[in-house]
UniProtKB/TrEMBL annotation, chain A:
Membrane topology: Multi-pass membrane protein
Lineage start: Bacteria, Bacillati, Actinomycetota, Actinomycetes, Micrococcales
Main location: membrane
Record-level GO cellular component terms: plasma membrane
Keyword Phosphoprotein: no
UniProt cross-references to InterPro entries, sorted A to Z: MetI-like, MetI-like_sf
Keywords: Cell membrane, Membrane, Transmembrane, Transmembrane helix, Transport
Name of the protein this chain belongs to: Peptide/nickel transport system permease protein
Spans traversing the lipid bilayer: 12-34, 108-129, 150-174, 180-200, 238-264, 284-310
A Pfam family: BPD_transp_1
Localization per Swiss-Prot or TrEMBL: Cell membrane
Domain ABC transmembrane type-1, first and last residues per copy: 104-307
Automatic annotation (TrEMBL), chain B:
UniProt keyword annotation of Signal present: yes
Major localisation: other
Organism placement in taxonomy: Bacteria, Bacillati, Actinomycetota, Actinomycetes, Micrococcales
Species of the source: Leucobacter exalbidus
Range of residues in the leader sequence: 1-28
Ranges for domain Solute-binding protein family: 83-456
GO molecular function, one term: peptide transmembrane transporter activity
InterPro entries: Peptide/Ni-bd, SBP_5, SBP_5_dom
GO biological process: peptide transport
Protein name stated in the entry: Peptide/nickel transport system substrate-binding protein
Amino acid sequence: MDGRLRGVVGTIAARVGSALLVVWATATIVFFALRVSGDPLEAVMGGPGSQAGPEAQAAAAATYGFDQPLIVQYLRQLWQVLTLQFGDSYTRKQPVVDLIAANFPSTALLATLALLLAWVLAVAGVLIAQTSRGRAGQLVRSTLHGLETIASVTPQFFLGAILILVLASGLGWFPVTGSGASALVLPVITLAVPVAGYLAHVMHGSLAEADAAPFALSARARGASEARVVLTHTLRHAALPALALSGWAYGSLLSGAVVVEALFARPGLGRLLLEAATGRDVPVVIGSVSIIALSYVVIMLVSDAIEIAVDPRLRPAPRRVQEVAL
Amino acid sequence: MQFRTTAALTSLCAIAALALTSCTSPGAASDTAATAQTGGTLVYATGDAEPTCLDPHVGGNYPQALISTQYLEPLVGRDASGEITPWLADTWQVAEDGLSWEFTLKEGITFTDGTPFDAAAVQANIAHLQDPETQSSTGFTALTKVESVDAVNDLRVRFNLISPDAALLESLSQPWTAMQSPTGIERGMEANCQTPVGTGPFIVESWEPQQSVILVRNDDYATPGPEADHDGPAYLDRIEWRFIPDAATRQAALAAGEVNVIDNPLPIDIAAAEKEGSGIGHLDAPRPGSVNRIELNSGQTPFDDVRVREAFIKSADPGPGITALFHGAATQSFSPLGSSEPAAISDESIFVTDVDAAAKLLDDAGWKPGANGVRAKDGKKLTVRFPVSTNQSVAAEQSLFEQIQANTAQVGFDVQLEPIDLATWHKRLSSKEYEAVSAPYTKVGPDVLRILYHSSGVTPAPSGYFGNHAMLLNDDVDALIEQATKTTDDAERTQLYAEAQQLILESYVILPLYDQQNHFLTNGVTGVAKLGTVGTPTFVNTQLTA
């Protein structure tokens, strides 16, 4: 195995290892937290305050194994997680895998589109700001900076409510809720805007640094236009920290989906998780959190790969060069 | 029982909704000119939790009652005046000793899967409800006095009781005990939860969790219930039953015409709908059983002293808050029972606000003014722990509690409001860590008084649930309620319940607030009716007007 491949395998192994650790910790915390706060039998019997008779309770306890020692129940839960089986939902009486399979695509699509839109908005904003010169340009730049800040601190449920008010209810451009492509627009914008603001903010900082670097000066000296300097030289640099943040951003988009899915009445992992957590549906909570953790790890790997592709410095040196150096 | 899960995004969305009322409704204004049409799809958006099973025999909560009203029918109905009416059963008789009831069933009715509705079907349904495997809670509780069901002949059944149960008809009118096809039940819980089969005006076609349930018209519908204005099938082709947890989103979807009916609207949206020319219809359908009320725990200090309870009630002054916070959509109650209960009695004189009298009562009880205006006795502060279930109390109600907190503070109470989730709330109740609490309870008929105020209700059921949160131990109340349960004479029963209610009110263990809120807003439809049982809407008469 050459060094480059070994490096990649090592990285993947470390990531998978930490993923397993995260999933184990999550499953353990969720299992015990939901047990401490109440009886899972309640969830099975239709929620707190259910007045099921003792026979009904005994039957349900036997079906779900609640009559066994806690440690046995815990180990069985772990085994289910390890085999990605997760068992059956306490409240929906369906396999957790089916529930996740039915809900994951919708959330993944939402988060992916939102990340793409966030990048488009951030890059567009940075380009406009960078290429605006003069007195008018100053105004454009400070406006964009202000927008960045507002965007990154706007709570999603507030932004979503405003978008519904103005674009859906007021102007009637998009449906308030629904399952078609047009119903995706507002949720995607709602999720993307805060992330776009954050990404743009980070890019601006590093763009200013790159702008003052010698290679930018020499490009300008060769007569390159401002747009050309940004597009071919400085933006690459500016994009690096933003790329590194994208993995994190994707994770935050997955959790932001809880709010957005509830607001726009979309099916998805976020809503499934929210319902399961309030209903003390242990297998569903553990299952969906595990899947979110796993997809987070996958995204981190992808963003690492993209970073390497964009920044030559991160690539391991080719063997031939190493030999020469020796 | 009701368990309401509402998305907790309300406060800012309420502002949004406020703005919304000023920027919408042009599309709806032409409703008067539009004519009702036959066919089409009605879209209903619910803010209640999505059922985990569409068969209301399993578990048994309000979201299941809401949707199953569209496809299941009970043995008997209940009209707006509270009178029990025929439905799947035509007539009934109770034996002298009250220990058996015979029902004659309507002839020629079939479930939508072709199974005939007969005595065997009724037997199968009661067996299903009483089978522990079904995991029924509400239906199971309603039938605790039913020992067995005999088929006298094809269309005649006899219910044999363990002891007389005057509330049996009311129990059988609830959606949680409605009749389902035995063939459907035999498919097993999983299949029956997905597509339960009834005799109702609609049929469950499919269910996409978190998205919608599709109901289609039952073309052979033959048993119009008490609210139907015509014989035969419903006018609508289909109902798309959607789950939209956020109230502001539901309202926006209604205003935009994406949905035709919503439940659980915000008070401000109800007020806006009530305005002339809003184009939005409003159906007020208060739930039966108890009112929303604050119960004072008379089982421990300080409310074990009736003077302290009276002082709290005399200083709480909830009236102005109810008017303001609910924008006129809720009226103050002075009864233990909801206004839709014909047996309800009100006594406003008990709830007159009198701060001076309250202060004097506390003085007499030995609670002296102390630091920060909080009274104390023997070094103990006059603290009232008030756990609030955020799943069951809407924003307006929580604000009302805050006002009551401020009002009672003026005479020296230290009310500690604690917003918590439903599970923690139940835990606090069962460990008696509360002095005041507000708990809704939905049951058809005055028999709800037995669950909430009979002294047997202080002992928790095996599940840990107990109904008598006020910890009322009053032999006279017990005797009246027991007698009412056994009597089959309606007038006598009403009288007994009236006396029991008067005693409950005079014991100062409850502060009634208002009817359990249940409102529906409509856009582009006519003929939305409510059932007299638990206030669920029925669409058997409904037509689109768009």
